[in-house]
Design brief:
Blueprint lengths: L3 E4 L2 E8 L2 E9 L3 E4 L5 H15 L8 E3 L5 H4 L2 H7 L4 E5 H8 L1 H10 L19 E3 L4 E2 L2 E5 L8 E5 L4 E5 L18 H12 L5 E4 L9 E3 L1 H27 L4 H11 L9 H17 L1
Parallel strand pairs: 4-5, 5-6, 6-7, 11-12
Antiparallel strand pairs: 1-2, 2-3, 3-4, 8-9, 9-10, 10-11, 12-13
Length: 290
């Protein structure tokens, strides 16, 4: 595994994760910045450190550690990186800062909503302190911070105006990954608004944090980026129509989640909690119209 160049000075490392991969971005500007850190300390030691060595760098060469959001598969290695490089500055938004202080508590809270359909908590997660607080429009070296609530409320994207590259983490879901079944958003209205905000950027390249279905992790060129964003937005309407149909058929919320996965051609995941969050958001729309 190595950091693969996706744009001038921007690299992507694909760390194996639950049958797919989770992305870690490395950006070289005036500073050397790492965005996201994988699932755990083992991922740092077994994937990130060897990839840094191949790149000609060590943890001590990193200047900034950012995250696209605070789900465990994206910040699970933060604490280990701070152990290896104590002078490494962790930068995050105010919402992310609160969650990074105790990521296990956030992990437990996410699972508490649908306990019967959730895996055990990720008890390896450890907190880190944030040294630099980022706000909307701030620049972390060459990267502009763009809040993109939807997938979760603390999600952000990073835009590099030099290359027109948009690093999105999980902010753009398409039809989800093979392990999710469908796209995951915990805040539907915010998700739609975030996509529209990203459309206004006229990005030349999108690089996601996982291989989402069916368009993959990368969109190359302005037209491809427009299609990618439009597809993500269109899917929210398709999901709404499907969930409304399942609800009228008398399906329970859990059965709606299973039916939506089948309707979209996804693989049925071992745990349904991610799909249930998405379905919950669409059921709220139906209930609001009654």
């Amino acid at each position: 595994m190595k950091f693969e160049c996706v744009a001038d000075g921007i690299y992507l490392l694909k760390i194996p994760f639950n049958g797919i991969w989770a992305g870690v971005y490395l950006v070289r500007g005036e500073a050397l910045t790492l965005i996201d850190s994988g699932l755990d300390a083992e991922g740092v030691d077994g994937a990130i450190l060897p990839a840094l060595r191949k790149f000609g760098a060590a943890p001590s060469d990193l200047d900034l550690l950012l995250c696209t959001h605070t789900h465990g598969d994206h910040i699970g290695g933060h604490a280990r990186l701070k152990e290896l490089a104590p002078r490494l500055r962790v930068a995050a938004t105010a919402l992310q800062r609160e969650k990074l202080a105790d990521p296990l508590a956030c992990n437990i809270a996410i699972r508490r909503t649908f306990p019967e359909d959730s895996p055990p908590p990720s008890r390896h997660l450890r907190g880190v302190a944030v040294q630099l607080c980022l706000r909307e429009g701030d620049c972390a070296d060459r990267l502009c911070v763009i809040p993109t609530s939807g997938h979760d409320d603390d999600a952000v994207c990073f835009f590099d105006g030099r290359t027109g590259t948009l690093l999105t983490g999980d902010s753009l879901q398409q039809d989800g990954t093979d392990t999710q079944g469908v796209g995951l958003y915990m805040y539907l209205d915010d998700y739609r608004a975030s996509i529209r905000r990203l459309m206004a950027l006229d990005a030349a390249r999108i690089v996601c944090g996982h291989p989402f279905r069916p368009l993959g992790a990368v969109a190359e060129g302005k037209e491809a980026c427009k299609r990618y964003l439009s597809f993500c937005l269109e899917l929210t309407d398709i999901y709404q129509e499907e969930v409304e149909r399942f609800s009228k058929e008398g399906k329970t919320p859990r059965a709606c989640a299973e039916a939506l996965i089948r309707a979209r051609g996804g693989k049925m995941p071992e745990h349904l909690f991610l799909a249930r969050y998405t379905v919950r958001e669409h059921l709220k729309k139906i209930q609001g119209e009654v």
